[in-house]
Amino acid sequence: MTNAPVPSRSLLFLLVALTALGEVSTQLIIPGLGAIEHALVAPTGSALMALSAFVAAFGLGQLIFGPLSDRVGRRPVLLGGLALYGLATLSMLLVNDIQQFIAARVMQGLGACAALVLARTVVRDVWRAEAGPALALTMIGMLYAIVVAPMVGGLLINYAGWRAPILFAAVMGSVVWLLALLFFRESNHALDPRAGHWRTLGGQYLNLLKDRPYRAYAVALACTYGAMFAVIAGSSAVFINLLGFSSLAYGINFGLIVSMLIVGSTYTRRNIMRLGAQRIVTRGVTLVALGGVSALVIYQVFGLSVLGLDIPIALATLGGGLVLPGAVTGAVMPNAHRAGLAAGLMGFAQMFGATCSGLLLSHLHDGSATPMIMIQAGSAILAGLGFYLLRARLPAELSYT
């Protein structure tokens, strides 16, 4: 009899916290990007590079930590990643310039990515055929964090300065590390000594990408999150600098917009076993594309306005609430024998989309809302078009057993 974790509320709570850690690390500081640039005497827009560096490290690390956990186990990789996260977050409090801040964010991203990829992998280990709803539930917890974190970050920055949200993230990371150390038991009892080896890792990923359904879900996830990240990274400058919002007001407004992610993920959790991942993601990318195109059309015809941004972005965000858990479920669940590998590559795809979006936004930054809206619309269209083209041969239903 193996001493493996069993499906429980306490384990689910820990996995929700792990899933949320990366998003919290970004959302807490977004209301203070301008304050960080001012404090570190950095050029306007340079803080966007810190966001892009974080998501790049967050994505690349999952390519390593996912298969490594197939080889050595989930627990050591998780604890090591959380320890790195805590140390990197504390180092962000001691930086003197934007270059040091970006370097610390890279290390923070590497640590945080272990939490996300291991959370998704452990769900597949423990819940097995019922992993779809459990995975969507962990995603809902993460999305609640996305809603609340900008509000908390804006409040902390208003009253305690730009370092306060970073200290909050460090405390949260320490608590999660302690909970994992005390209560998480190894869930992978079929270690693969060939997994994660640098000589074979590339071939394993190529083999995974040969699967057409997997590619379809990866493209949908990458482009959808690219569209979302354009708003995540660019909206603070638009709402604060162009529309006159305070940091706190922006955090509240942003939280209300992204609350649609929770609505979408709740729908996914309740219906994914009945409808299947393909139908869920099809509906999701349709909403994402409609929202992205609507935002662009309204901006071009009527100009910049709060409602002209909030309503289309909320529609796209609702679609994202279907795509994020649906695509991960559809890609990871059929790959039980290489769950870490499959989760790692999906995590990389998600962060690759965000990295491309962030780099484009940083390069095209001109003080207007145009780059953010154009990148969001373009990514949203690619999400819908890419998935529709690749899904043509997808089976009607996939087995998750």
TrEMBL record:
This is Bcr/CflA family efflux transporter. Residues 11-395 form the Major facilitator superfamily (MFS) profile domain. NCBIfam families: efflux_Bcr_CflA. Its main location: membrane. It is found in: Cell inner membrane; Cell membrane. The chain crosses the membrane at residues 42-65, 77-95, 101-123, 135-160, 166-184, 216-242, 248-268, 280-299, 311-332, 339-361, 373-390. Keywords: Cell inner membrane, Cell membrane, Membrane, Transmembrane, Transmembrane helix, Transport. Belongs to the major facilitator superfamily. Bcr/CmlA family. The keyword Nucleotide-binding does not apply. PANTHER family: MAJOR FACILITATOR SUPERFAMILY, POLYAMINE TRANSPORTER 2-RELATED. The keyword Nuclease does not apply. Pfam families: MFS_1. It is a multi-pass membrane protein. InterPro entries: Efflux_drug-R_Bcr/CmlA, MFS, MFS_dom, MFS_trans_sf, Tet-R_TetA/multi-R_MdtG-like.
